[in-house]
Amino acid sequence: MESKESYPHPVDKVEHIQTHISHVFIAGPFVYKLKKHVDFGFLDYSTLNKRKKYCHREVELNRRLSDDIYIGVVGICRKEGHFNFEESNNCSDAIIEYVVKMRKLNEAYFLNRIVEDGELSNVHLDRVADTLTPFYLKQKQGRKLSKWGEVQTIKVNTDENFRQTEQFIGHTIQRNAYEAVRYFTNHYFQKNQQLFQRRIEDGRIVDGHGDLHLEHIHITPEKVQIYDCIEFNERFRYGDLAADLAFLSMDFDFNRCRKEERYFIEKMSNNLKDDDLIQIIDFYKCYRAYVKGKVKSFQSVEEEVPKKERKRSSKRAIRYFKLSHRYALMGSEPMVIIFMGRVATGKSTLAGVVADHLDIKHHSSDIIRKTLAGVSQTERTPEIKRSALYSPGMFEKTYDTLISRALHSIKSRETVILDATYSKSAQRRNLINSLKHKSTPYLFIELKSRDETITERLKSRDEKSGVISDARLEDFETLTAGFQPPKEIDERHLIKIDTEQSPKDSVEQLYKEMIDIHLRS
Q1: Could you tell me the sign of the dihedral formed by the alpha carbons of 295, 360, 217, 140, in that order?
Q2: pTM of this prediction?
Q3: Residue 10 — very low, low, confident or very high, per pLDDT cuts 50/70/90?
Q4: Which residues of 66-83 are buried (b: 16+ CB within 10 A; e: fewer)?
Q5: What are phi and psi for residue 86, nearest 5 degrees?
């Protein structure tokens, strides 16, 4: 099929694209999709009859949301030692394979290309929403559909995801992220039984698309067409309409279109008169990002896929798993996370780990202060300059800069990490008031260690290079005396982490407590 002479129409060149389940051949004005001879359990293309069945099923289902993309199913025959397409299926010899024939679409109008070009507008989102709304609303509810909204049924899918991704721990997903998403998922089921039941009673369970990504939506000035739905397993297509929309919603977040994501989901909520959609969408976004991470992980180890593409799939799998992890810890609303505590309790270390795990911007008071003063970040500031660097005026300027950067990130709907001692109650109140004024969620994480541990850590700094903080052992008593415990912060906004434990245990404790707060909100 890579030979242009094989096709019954003029072809200048053939482009061959592989996924873990299909071969796709772009040949002139048409696209031919060949299903691989594979059986993953959840997908079974292992026999010719099954591949034929699912080719016809793909055409039938995708015509629901597209009117002229899917031409039909084409047979491949062997004639006189050559392979030929037989569109009438009246092949004199045995058909050895079946393919789905489609019209090639103009690349410029795919929604992912529109996003990449920075052209996405509310008009695009309105048109997609107006296409999907009648598709969901016209469906009749019944036992066949409603059972797919039950917790025990959904849990079959999530449990399968965790089983299938264990092999990728340490490669595309970190152990603590794997455990955090699993903890969040299972506890969400436990705490929201009534919500899932209400979704069933309100008729929100549909025969959806099942793979509603940006690249599967084509928008020309004349029409919106949505294609490439899941045909191989009803279990992945039947479910809450929120699960369907979560693919697209998650894609917007993945591409840093967070304002557009919120506009789209609110638009769908209004169109469908679905007040619970806003509440449950984050659960399904976590689920869908995890599924995408799983699929890209499979592609990263598929030997038939070119090495360059496998490497790209691995990088994207890592990003999707990080996004799923973020949804588990804090949902999709932007948040300010403040790592605070006495000197040498491990604030910057833990803040850096979390920033890396979750792809979150990290702002350190030590770096900001030295940058503002024009001194080296990685060398201890000379004594002669230290009084100016740590003057009340510089403290105020540093902490005002932290607030400014936090608000700037929130305006772009981006979560941000602030890393500073926040030793004074007044500093904390000033930050809280600024965030409340913008209705911004926030979470303080106070790190705590014994005096003996702190003094040992301060001693060791003299033997290390590249230490950003200027604090040393001789500063311990002064800094400790000036620290005011955060008694004024409500427990809903405060987590305390004892860093006497290993960094690994500190991270795991933090993630678990963040999820517990998230589930209570």
Answers
A1: positive
A2: 0.89
A3: confident
A4: beebbeebbbbbeeeeee
A5: -130, 90
